[in-house]
Amino acid sequence: MKNFEFYNPVKIYFGKDEIDKLSEILIPYKKIMFAYGQGSIKENGIYNQITEQLKNYNYVEFAGIEPNPSYETLMKAVKIARKEQVDFILAVGGGSVIDGVKFIAAAVKYTNRDPWEILSKQIEITDAIKIGTVLTLPATGSEMNGTSVISKYATKEKLAFGSPLLMPVFSILDPQTIKSLPDIQIANGIVDAYVHVIEQYLTYPSDAKVQDKFSESLLKILIEIGQELLNDRNNYELNANFMWTATMALNGLIATGVPTDWSTHLIGHEITALHGIDHAQSLAIVLPGVMQVMKEDKQDKIIQYAKEVFNIYNADNEETIKSAIVKTEEFFKSLGIKTKLSDYNIDETITKIIPQRLKERRYLKLGENKNITPDIVEKILKIRL
Ligand code: NZQ
Ligand code: ZN
Question: What is the pTM of this model?
Answer without folding.
Answer: 0.98
